[in-house]
């Protein structure tokens, strides 16, 4: 069994036909070992996974077979079988909310759908939640609600613990406790395999133990991998469990305001005043967004202003609330009811992102660039653009150090910033390429204008990035080199680079 993986990496660029045969072999072997946890096209379990993706781009891919592990050891067995079969590629799926094709699904490979790993347990002192990596945030919040504690996780409950946390994770609580990943106290991970030094032998210095073993990764054990996983996405292993630090939490105050587009100046001024405050209110969780419907050619402003204490009309949002609105509402509710959003119908989706230094004037310019780029673009079936702005206060970034740091490369010293999430949704898959092109054009124009004004930050938030962006490289040269070192240490034959092709890859971004 020893050096099989060296061989598989060397010949990973095999022909399509060879790959097909290998996937057949691979799925047959998996089926032999894991029985009904493996499903094939036409079976209900296969269907259930395929129908659970958020975007049509992901749902449209057809894996050779799908594994639904029910215990972490199923993942270990599967990874060692897959790794030993040349040409057998795989994808790792949480709640399937990454929109880009191939990030958590694969054509003609093996998809590992983690959603069955969804156990939750709270430590007796209520300080740590252990959660299976495939759970949704809604499951987490529902479990924690009766204990009056919560964790920093997704705002929409349908999103997965796995993807959101490994990419950073912006929570309503982030200004108070940092990125979701900053609150991970321990990961349970299936790395590609375990190896140990056996001195110098004829072939190599390392002996591969092909039966993968689950390992804990935390501040005192494999602390390099621990830091790498906080932003490193699926480049290092399959995470099977997250242990998350909790916070005391009661009800929240939730407001929404819809404004006419003619009110954009006061809205963006209010946003900028909140974002640029040196005393950013750590209970404020704000999203300001422009929506554009290509069929009606109508823009509207839609804002979500959450305050993570049960205080109606908190002063921090007073300036925003005073802008004349088409509709507005404010109420007190639990995180569970706030996160319990209705699923969207099957649509194509695109995400793209950039980070800026606060400036209301520049946000007005962003709007003009968007309008001039998007105004006359109206693909078959219509399309909606949703351009959202979210604060990235420096106080939030300072929480990274409490658990030994992350790799995101955004520093509190840079001051407060805000993140733009440019997203699009449209029904007609024939428009996918052209939508991507238009989004790229808008993004690049905005970025170059921001750069010229000294307002562009290098950070590209991975969970919001388009497939054509390079978020890992945006973490900065030191972090990127660190990630590559950790990858070669824990995954020396680059299984998670070459055989897990989906998502943002160190190997790919490194080539740029
Ligand atoms: C409706 C919606 C709301 C959102 N809200 C927020 C928000 O409030 N805050 C925020 O920060 N982001 C938010 N996002 C972005 C979100 O963080 C990303 O889409 C994230 O990738 C979703 O994670 P997932 O597990 O559901 O997705 P998946 O598509 O299943 O996985 C995403 C990526 O993570 C990898 N991955 C997943 N699980 C594992 C694992 N266990 N081990 C190794 N790799 C794994 C996958 O291989 C894939 O590349 C939102 C997205 C959507 C669509
Ligand atoms: C799988 O889903 C498709 C539609 O998405 C449906 O036509 C088919 O009957 C389903 N098959 C099974 C086995 O559930
Ligand atoms: C956890 O996963 C199992 C297996 O997929 C599923 O039956 C169960 O409903 C899930 N639990 C919750 C709380 O969603
Ligand atoms: C949670 O808070 C509510 C309201 O304050 C209280 O009634 C309840 O006893 C608390 N539950 C626990 C487990 O502390
Ligand atoms: C870190 O991992 C080690 C090794 O498995 C384990 O003994 C220790 O309890 C872990 N620490 C935490 C905080 O989980
Ligand atoms: C966009 O506008 C068209 C025309 O007014 C309308 O029919 C459609 O429902 C709108 N789409 C969305 C998603 O609001
Ligand atoms: C908020 O909505 C109410 C009606 O629901 C309206 O009377 C009020 O003017 C609105 N506030 C602003 C600032 O427009
Ligand atoms: C939280 O708000 C809900 C109303 O949405 C209310 O029913 C519940 O009692 C509140 N809980 C606490 C602890 O105040
Ligand atoms: C958007 O651009 C169109 C076409 O140039 C213009 O007519 C329209 O007024 C612009 N919209 C806004 C809100 O500025």
From TrEMBL:
One of its GO terms (molecular function) is oxidoreductase activity. Belongs to the oxygen-dependent FAD-linked oxidoreductase family. Residues 59-249 form the FAD-binding PCMH-type domain. Residues 1-18 form the signal peptide. The keyword Signal applies. Keywords: FAD, Flavoprotein, Oxidoreductase, Signal. InterPro entries: FAD-bd_PCMH (IPR016166), FAD-bd_PCMH-like_sf (IPR036318), FAD-bd_PCMH_sub2 (IPR016169), FAD-linked_Oxidoreductase (IPR050416), Oxid_FAD_bind_N (IPR006094). It comes from the Eukaryota. This is FAD-binding domain-containing protein.
